[in-house]
Design goal:
By secondary structure, the chain is α/β, with parallel strands linked by helices. It is 44% helix and 14% strand. It contains 8 helices and 7 strands, in the order E-H-E-H-E-H-E-H-E-H-E-H-H-H-E. Strands 3-2-1-4-5-6-7 form a 7-stranded parallel β-sheet, sandwiched between helices. Helix 1 packs across helix 8, helix 3 packs parallel to helix 4 and helix 4 packs parallel to helix 5. The protein is globular and about 50 Å long. The chain binds D-gluconic acid (GCO) and calcium ion. Calcium ion (CA) binds at residues 17, 20-23, 195-197. D-gluconic acid binds next to loops.
Length: 256
């Protein structure tokens, strides 16, 4: 009974930006909860390597290479996935990039690149998947990957923080629009996890020293610690949870 609340058997899940890092860990976690997963990234070779990693763990993942920043490519890809594999019941809109520069010197192209992926790209994916969920009338689960930067600022990452703050309001707005269609739109907001995106920080002992004092849990997060929150928001257990950001941050946003 309680287990059924967290069972994803028979669901098809698309996880964007899942050739590495958080996306790949979440794809694996959703598959272990029973979902069929579709991996996405821009680079087909990296995607194939990610699928091979999952295959070693006994998970047969599908691959859908496309660029989330191109709304036409996104819509074509989602149509193609559904024609080939059936309705997407779970979208994890995870694809995101990080670029660092002091704001005063930030080149326009850097600003645009981050917003194009982290904000526009999430919207295009939610739109392409959401409009089909609405048309089918059988609901669905949309999970945006937010950040502690949905709530907190930090020097040198203005476009990233701006995009993640915007995702908080996008998540709420899509909930406001789509909840009546049985669609739940929620966010998982990770704190600091060691991934490709945080390499610069992981390799900086001063940052780790600061972080372990700043985070109540006193350490970096482990990728597998994001799985529970994501499975919850993808599963029947969260059917009346909507427009919510679930922070998985070792207490960081709760404490000064
Ligand atoms: C930074 C980090 C963060 C993390 C993460 C925290 O420079 O502060 O890269 O932004 O990547 O998003 O939730
Ligand atoms: Ca990533």
């Amino acid at each position: 009974m309680t287990r059924a609340l967290f069972d994803l058997t028979g669901r098809l899940a698309l996880v964007t930006g899942s050739s590495q890092g958080i996306g790949l860990a979440l794809a694996k976690g959703l598959a272990e909860a029973g979902a069929r997963v579709v991996l996405n990234g821009r680079d087909p070779a990296k995607l194939a390597a990610a699928a091979a990693t999952l295959a070693e763990a006994g998970i047969a993942a599908e691959q859908a290479p496309f660029d989330v920043t191109d709304p036409i490519a996104v819509d074509d890809a989602v149509a193609g996935i559904e024609a080939r594999l059936g309705p997407i019941g779970i979208l994890v809109a995870n694809a995101g990039v990080m670029r660092r520069s002091p704001s005063a010197e930030m080149p326009p192209a850097m600003w645009r690149e981050v917003l194009a992926t982290n904000l526009d790209g999430v919207f295009w994916c939610c739109q392409a998947v959401g409009r089909r969920m609405i048309a089918r009338g059988r609901g669905g689960k949309i999970i945006t990957i937010c950040s502690v930067m949905s709530e907190l600022g930090r020097p040198t990452i203005a476009p990233y923080a701006a995009s993640k703050g915007a995702l908080r309001m996008l998540t709420r707005t899509l909930c406001a629009e789509w909840a009546r269609h049985g669609i739940q739109v929620n966010g998982v907001a990770p704190g600091y996890f060691a991934t490709e995106l945080t390499n610069a920080l992981v390799n900086d002992p001063e940052f780790t020293a600061w972080l372990t004092r700043r985070v109540p849990a006193g350490r970096w997060g482990r990728l597998e610690e994001l799985v529970g929150a994501t499975v919850f928001l993808a599963a029947p257990a969260s059917d009346f949870v909507n427009g919510h950001l679930l922070y998985v941050d070792g207490g960081m946003t709760a404490a000064l």
